Cellulose-binding protein
Amino acid sequence: MRRKVTLPLLTVATVGASLFVAVAPASAHGYISSPPSRQANCARGAVANCGDIVYEPQSVEAPKGSTQCNGGGSRFAVLNDNSRNWPAASVGSSVTFNWVLTARHATSTWEYFIGGTKLATFNDGGAQPGATKSHTVSMGGFTGRQTVLARWNIADTVNAFYSCVDVNIGGGGTTPPPTTPPPTTPPPTTPPPTQPTTPPTTQPPAGGTWRAGTAYVPGNVVTYGGASYSCRQAHTALVGWEPPNVPALWSRI
């Protein structure tokens, strides 16, 4: 009798363990925080009605090899919608892309594309990255508004993490000088009364208590747990990124 009871129990335990392994989520997550990726712009509220990517900008995970902003998976299709008014960061001929990694994973390569053109590949050879990662990438002669696709290829799974960054290469522009000088106006015979001027004020660093969902930039100062912290890298705060937990993003002062 003991044998007949024990075997089914072992079978149930084995099946339960296999189900646990099958549904366990991948441990690596990350996205480009600056220049702001599409998911970063959604998370900080720069683009409205993005769906649940607002809460999971770090979770754009799909099999390797996709050229879509959401990796071609079933989630976050909003990231592929080019009809939306995605903000484009004004950049030069080379750009430094800054990743925030909420969990680290052995990495094979990091790849950057514009359209079908690969701009750069960085080979980590299976190394585990830190809490942040930065790459300086040449824009390869592209100009104007472009969308850069970045892929973080994980070494020991079939998946990658995806981030699309909208940029305006050489953006901002300048107004060409006039071909003829503008007409001059003679000075008035009586000077106008001098108006009192107010000295310009500078915007102090953001203060108050750290809050998830808030976009922070370097120099912002927050309090958490009775201590003050200064922001080290632009990012949108998430639960789990409390200042004491992410020294790559916050330094205690």
In short: The first helix runs from residue 2 to 23. Residues 109 and 123 are 4 Å apart (CA to CA).
